[in-house]
Specification:
This protein has 9 helices and 12 strands. It is of the alpha/beta class. The strands form 4 sheets. The chain has a 5-stranded mixed sheet, covered by helices on one side. Helix 1 crosses helix 2 and helix 5 packs across helix 9. It is globular and about 70 Å long.
């Protein structure tokens, strides 16, 4: 008899497999770390397979774990779609719905232009904007919570992930106005390596990008706080628990008294991309991508530039 798979346990496993860190996965799931460890061992016992290799400093997927990760993502996405379709049928919904995932300021000034152009051309599609926190750089695509999303690479590439860059913009350092750095016309990473930083609760590659670890010449990051949202990040900065790198457009959408935004001279810029699942056949998604592409080719975002290559 085949073992019964618990979707909740699979979602726990996916979080650990993506984070490769039990502490961050537990924070992402809002459960205690010991409880998460017990649930993962329960899943391994149910399947009769070791899914993760653990040490005091390292978590690694086994070949069986890699297979389960890929298949679990598909199963969880299918479950989300089944629930959505069933609810739509129960409520007699005839309108097509498109869930657009985003974080922070989405596609900056392009967001209302893309939405307006899409709704004008496809009035029969109901667009729902869904916000996601830093713990999910794939912005709902991995588990089917969103149909299409505005994302900020680098992302852990998946065989189902489609990406197209809409624009590129510089990163800035966000500091409290009481900081000596606030009055600088610009700064370099070398000038701030001794500062405490506000880190994003996110998978390692994405977290490290926003901490600019590759530009620190081996200097370790000093952590002052860990946060899940932009608002939490700025509250930590205002409380002088640290500073943080962010996209330059943040200033126009989240500027508030007590914060200063300082240009950074020596870190790579950040790109804003439209993302979707290549394994899902959806005409509204294709239409939304085409609309975003067209708007981005005709409109500009202040201080940003079009992708090259």
């Amino acid at each position: 008899m085949l073992p019964q798979l618990d979707l909740r346990l699979l979602s726990y496993f996916v979080a650990v497999a993506e984070e490769l860190h039990f502490g961050r996965a537990a924070a992402r799931l809002h459960i205690a770390q010991p409880s998460l460890s017990v649930q993962i061992r329960k899943l391994e016992h149910t399947l009769g397979a070791v899914l993760l290799l653990r040490s005091s400093r390292h978590v690694e997927l086994t070949p069986a774990g890699q297979v389960l990760l890929e298949e679990s993502r598909r199963m969880l996405a299918d479950a989300e779609r089944i629930v959505a379709l069933t609810r739509d049928a129960a409520h007699g919904s005839s309108a097509r719905k498109l869930v657009v995932g985003f974080q922070a300021n989405a596609a900056a000034e392009l967001t209302p232009q893309i939405l307006g152009a899409f709704q004008a051309q496809f009035p029969g599609v109901q667009v729902q904007m869904q916000s996601f926190d830093f713990t999910d750089p794939h912005v709902g695509l991995a588990d089917g919570s969103s149909d299409v999303a505005f994302v900020r690479p680098p992302l852990l590439m998946q065989d189902w992930l489609g990406l197209e860059t809409l624009f590129v913009e510089p990163r800035v350092l966000v500091v409290s106005t009481s900081s000596p750095l606030a009055g600088q016309p610009h700064i370099s990473v070398e000038q701030v390596t001794n500062e405490f930083f506000v880190a994003r609760k996110a998978p390692e590659e994405w977290r490290n990008f926003w901490l600019a670890t590759e530009s620190r010449l081996g200097e370790p990051v000093r952590l002052g706080a860990e946060v899940s949202t932009v608002d939490e990040c700025f509250e930590a900065i205002l409380s002088e628990r640290g500073v943080a790198f962010s996209q330059s457009s943040t200033q126009r959408f989240y500027g508030r008294p007590g914060l200063a935004f300082v240009p950074v001279t020596d870190i790579p810029p950040t790109s804003l991309s439209i993302a979707w699942r290549t394994d899902v056949d959806s005409q509204p998604v294709r239409d939304f991508i085409d609309t975003a592409r067209a708007v981005a080719s005709l409109r500009t975002v202040p201080h940003a530039w079009a992708p090259t290559g």
